[in-house]
Amino acid sequence: MYFMNLTNLFSLFLLSFVVLVRGKPLSLSPRDVYVPPVLYPHTGTVWKINNHHNVTWDNSDPPVNITNKIGRIMLRKGSLTTPLILADNFDILLGRIEVMVPWVLEGSDYQVVLFGDSGNFSPLFTITS
Ligand SMILES: *[C@@H]1O[C@H](CO)[C@@H](O)[C@H](O)[C@H]1NC(C)=O
Ligand SMILES: *[C@@H]1O[C@H](CO)[C@@H](O)[C@H](O)[C@H]1NC(C)=O
């Protein structure tokens, strides 16, 4: 009985160690962190629901060794990033990816977030129906 408890305690210890390690941000050298700025959509852009658009970003100056080359684009409204994924699993070096505007409330406080190593917000733009 005592032995079992000790084993459980040890597993718990191991688990919390894993969680700690995973939760800890990796220390990266700055040149490897690639956060290209979003060029489109920009201020004044109006997207209509269900239309297709190319989100574009500046890929002219990537570091030699990019830590994470896989990109993801999410939609943000107001001060919240929504759970909506517009594009995923693409090469961050492409500089462009086509997305479909999802069926969302109209608003002029939308942004896209481009994730690679980190997240980069576009300027605010509008989605209409
Ligand atoms: C996105 O860019 C690709 C490549 O230039 C082009 O073929 C496609 O038509 C563009 N899509 C839109 C919605 O403009
Ligand atoms: C990039 O990675 C390669 C292979 O790991 C390494 O030899 C090289 O020094 C790295 N270059 C930079 C600029 O970090």
From TrEMBL:
Signal sequence, renumbered to the chain: 1-23
Organism superkingdom: Eukaryota
Keywords: Signal
Name of this protein: Uncharacterized protein
Organism: Collybia nuda
